[in-house]
Amino acid sequence: MSTSSGSKAPERRQVQSRGDQFSWGELGPWASRMQDLMDQMWSPAMGVGDFAPGGELRETDDAFTLELDVPGVDKKDITIDFSGRRLSVRGTKTTERQGQGTLRHTTRTSGSFSYEAVLPVAVDEKAVTASLADGVLLVTMPKATEAKTTHVEIS
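The chain above was modelled as a monomer; its predicted structure follows.
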């Protein structure tokens, strides 16, 4: 294809290398902050086993609530611990059902699970409650008095 405008092909320029202008070492001070942020948003221990419960962690002015879907898990098979601001829920789901005939296929999941979250503020560990109903684990964690949000009116 020819053009009648008489323009020539664009000139190719040599790409210059940046060299070592950027050092990954410069990110060092930010690495621990990024890890803390990732720990707060996603738990690296979520779904350790074959069974990974879905759930929600919510915050209000007064408390945090965690709801985990753990159908078929008995409360004796769940452990809830606190260490500082870190919440840890561990458990095991078993499917030891005996039936007649040879099992050819199953979609039931079983195994150990773990859920961990780092809360942004301290909670009153002595006031934490947990209940299990209809396959949903509900953990209510009231914020520590010094951690609650206080609204101040301007006079």
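The two ends are 77 Å apart (CA to CA).
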